[in-house]
Amino acid sequence: MLKKILPFVFVFAGIVFMLLFFTSLFSVSELVYPERLTSASLIDKEKEKIRAGKDTLFEKDILTNPQQLKLAYSDFNVQVAGNVLLKGWYIKQEDAVTAKTILLLHDINESKISLLPTADALFQLGFNICMIDLPAHGESGGDKFLINDSISSYLSVVLDSLYCLFETNKVAVLATGVSALLAVNWMVNDKRADILVLQNPINKFNNLLKQSVKQKWGSFASIVYPLAKMKYRKSAGFQPDSLNLSEWVQRIKKPLMVVITDSATEMQAKDALAVYEKAASLKKKIWTNKSRSFITNDGDTENNLYRAISAFINSNTIDKSRKIKSRKRIAEL
Question: How far is CA 204 from CA 171, 180, 211, in A?
């Protein structure tokens, strides 16, 4: 009897293993091959919602470029290594020479379109704004999204391009979610940017992978996760637990602001707090407008997110007499 049952047991076990293998692949795919958020994809999604009776937005009401916010902008496209073209937008003040510049980096599975409200708010506060689609996002080239030295070199070329503009003097970097890992890993070696602002930063990429698996597979997450981790390592070429923001910020000396928005989950808020506490910067600040029992807001009376960011940048980049500086050519990597 046992001999008759045994083959079926092996077949069943094989089917289960294959199922777990492919479900783990599904969990990893959006972290390596993100969804591309473009104006066309946004409009298509809204049309689907309208057809399903879930939305009543008209195409003209969907925010897809700065012009809709009455912001005059120019394309900011940068060619980087591997023949990858990063596409972005640049919005400058009328008196751009006296304005500081903010480079905005979006979260995973988002794009520069996602940053338009932030860009508008900070532009109204007097900053020049640059925002790009990260590799494998939006309209930018690239097949994979990997947090490694290659993407750091891409960001260095973006900064080179900014410094090729006559008006660029002081540059702050505002990175959201997963892009906080990119920004810190980059700024550890490229020290030209003056200020770093991390908004709802992801502390450990490993936890993001766990969260992704749990959302998709619920009670099966503990079984799927080890395979998902192995699959990520195979796709990315490194272990996800090697990406640890609270370790990296110990090597950053630039002024650092950690921002927790009202929409942040408790896990995101605790991640942000862990990053802030480990940061080595002598000029660091944590900001949140929402009351949280485990966070003290340093007595900050500014309850507007963008004014708080503006105040931090301005107070830590006091301009001395402007010096004529030579412009660095775009790096050839």
Answer: 26, 11, 11
List, as one string, the DSSP characters of 151-173: HHHHHHHHHHHHHTSTT---EEE
The 3-state DSSP composition of the chain as helix, strand, coil percent (nearest 5) reads 50, 15, 40
Residue 178's identity, in one-letter code, is V
pTM (2 d.p.): 0.86
Residue 284, token pair as written in the block: 């660091």
Domain 66-204+243-315 has CATH 3.40.50.1820: yes
pLDDT digits (tens, 9 = 90+) for 161-208: 999 999 999 999 999 999 999 999 999 999 999 999 999 999 998 888
| Ordered alpha helix ranges (H), the chain | 2-32, 39-51, 116-124, 149-163, 179-187, 205-217, 221-236, 245-248, 266-278, 305-315
Domain ranges of the chain: 66-204+243-315
d(CA 92, CA 100): 10
CB 65 within 8 A of CB 38: no
| Element containing residue 301 per DSSP (H, E) | none
149-164 per-residue burial string, b: 16 or more CB within 10 A, e: under 16: ebbbbbbbbbbbbbbe
Q: Are strands 78-80 and 88-91 parallel, antiparallel or unpaired?
A: unpaired
Other C-beta atoms closer than 10 Å to the C-beta of 87 total 18
134/178 Cα distance (integer angstroms): 11
The stretches in the chain having pLDDT less than 50 are 8-26, 321-333
